[in-house]
Amino acid sequence: MRDLHLSLNQTQRVRLQAALDQLESYAASTAAAAASVTVADSIPVNHEDNILKGHGTSDLDGQVVATLCGVVERVNKLVYVRALRSRYKPEVGDIIVGRVIEIAPKRWRLEINFSQDAVLMLSSMNLPDGIQRRRTAVDELNMRSIFVENDVICAEVRGFQHDGSLQLQARSQKYGKLEKGQLLTVPPYLVKRRKQHFHHLDQYNVDLIVGCNGFVWVGEHVETSEKESTLLSDKPSGKQETDNSVPLETRRHICRIANAVRLLSVIGLTLTVESVTETVEASLRSNIEINEMLGSEFYVQTVEREAQRRASMVRKRS
Amino acid sequence: MAASTYSPSQGAERRQRQQQMRRLSIQSDWDRSDGRSFIQCRPAFLRTGAANAASGSAYAEFGTTKVIVSVFGPRESKKAMMYSDIGRLNCNVTFTTFATSLRGQGSDNKEYSAMLHKALEGAVILETFPKTTVDVFALVLESGGSDLPVIISCASLALADAGIMMYDLVSSVSVSCIGKNILIDPTNEEEVCQDGSLVLACMPARNEVTQLTLTGEWSLPKINEAMELCMDACLKLAGIMRSCLKESANLSN
């Protein structure tokens, strides 16, 4: 909760503190004493031999020493430190949202909150005409008709090259340019890897894409088949498509969902489609205006609701 | 001088004060202006997460010395750079225009930038981010003496906050030699009339020194004494820095 500048009144402060205390007590009981370390703290390993030293650890006089601030995790013999605040660490198969920063020969460079820029090769994405063939020089010249600088696009992590740089692919209709919506950036640790990262919120006619890199896209729903047809058709229809604007109702929904994502990331709760829709519904139920969603009252309410949810979970388990 | 700008000239007054200090320094026993003893540091206030846009940041306040450091990255090195297996550390120290008592002096400080780089270089594990750069931007909000040590300590805190791998935190302390006395953590006016100064940056948990700067007149036994004093102070400062990081970790949980 680093970027929090709310002016709470006395009762709100008391309620928030109570809810936070409650949350803390559950966290303490569930997490197996999450040992947080800072740089150069020694990690106790009880003199076990052949311990595997993983990420964020180093050896000093036979002791395992942390080189990061974070939480110590143990998997059998492997000891590693999970950093609290760090950049996104990609894994093969992750769905990510990124922004094009440069067009280079046969490739686009994307900013994805990784320590290096990601590379999307022209050859590793479907061409608009949908035909599988070798990419020609003409395709290369027409790259700007597919993505230009500052476009927000969605892709999948294909793999790493030997020098550590990241390759992406977009070999399906669901990947590609994202239009008519908002891009939000949240800390990457708030997004957990799941089966589904593309969500179509039917009732709001909105697409929610939760990128593993902490970039979240909230935009108007697009039918993938329809997208294909627009891509297939030639330029005039493409221009027509940009002309038709998003209805006001959908824009409101987009803003509401975006504010729910912002609120959850400020509180530091994991972003899932369930938590987002739940927050949106709660705001609708209590008649909270979109601009008031980031205010102190709804903030306190959200924390309290989370505390209640965990309490009911604990009760169910016992 | 143009009448429209008002810049109080305190030259005469300052000179007088310096002479007084010098006279004092001849005596073996005198009081420091802020009532500390010779081997007492100023109270330290440290806080991480001072700037939101940065990957990591820290704010440090030692007496009247106020410093804010933001760390960006690791991010891709510029194209013009050659390929390298290890990462680059880019340090930049800036003074605000109102940092010193003489106004309008704010600018990049090349000397401090280079010294900050040298002090941190040994502690950061550069092998963990090849081809990329970590930028460290230090901004001195108010210069109240011993600026460089405060910048170094604050920068290592910001690096730790940004989740950059380090062997250890770097804590730094300076001492001044005035006459027969050794003063730890000198203020501006004490720095002005010093005979010599020593800045020590070290990694306390490893007992390794990353940087040692010695200027002015020193005798060998004095150097030894000053070194020991600094090492001890660094160890204690590292304790404060550690508890600051722990505190912020607990908050975010």
TrEMBL record, chain A:
Subcellular location(s): the record lists: Nucleus
Which keywords describe this protein according to UniProt? Exosome, Nucleus, RNA-binding, rRNA processing
A molecular function GO annotation? RNA binding
Q: Do you know which SMART domains this protein is assigned to?
A: S1
Q: Does the keyword Nucleotide-binding apply?
A: no
Q: SUPFAM superfamilies of this UniProt entry?
A: Eukaryotic type KH-domain (KH-domain type I), Nucleic acid-binding proteins, Ribosomal L27 protein-like
What processes does the entry annotate via GO biological process terms? CUT catabolic process; exonucleolytic trimming to generate mature 3'-end of 5.8S rRNA from tricistronic rRNA transcript (SSU-rRNA, 5.8S rRNA, LSU-rRNA); nuclear polyadenylation-dependent rRNA catabolic process; poly(A)-dependent snoRNA 3'-end processing; TRAMP-dependent tRNA surveillance pathway; U4 snRNA 3'-end processing
Entry annotated with the keyword ATP-binding:
no
Cellular component GO terms, alphabetically?
A: cytoplasmic exosome (RNase complex); nuclear exosome (RNase complex)
S1 motif domain: which residues? 91-171
Task: Return the similarity comment.
Answer: Belongs to the RRP4 family.
Supply the name of the protein. Exosome complex component rrp4-like protein
Q: Which organism is it from?
A: Carex littledalei
TrEMBL record, chain B:
Primary subcellular site in the record, as a coarse category: cytoplasm
Q: Name one GO cellular component term.
A: nucleolus
Q: Cellular location of this protein?
A: Cytoplasm; Nucleus
Q: Where is the Exoribonuclease phosphorolytic domain?
A: 40-164, 168-229
Which segments show compositional bias classed as Polar residues? Answer: 1-10
Q: Does the keyword Cytoplasm apply?
A: yes
- What InterPro entries does this protein's entry cite? ExoRNase_PH_dom1, ExoRNase_PH_dom2, ExoRNase_PH_dom2_sf, PNPase/RNase_PH_dom_sf, Ribosomal_Su5_D2-typ_SF, RNase_PH
Q: Name one GO biological process term.
A: nuclear mRNA surveillance
Q: Which GO terms describe its molecular function?
A: RNA binding
Sorted alphabetically, the keyword list is:
Cytoplasm, Exosome, Nucleus, RNA-binding, rRNA processing
User: Segment Disordered: which positions?
Assistant: 1-29
What domain of life does the native source organism fall in? Eukaryota
The record's family statement is: Belongs to the RNase PH family.
Q: Write the protein's name.
A: Exosome complex component MTR3
The source organism is: Carex littledalei
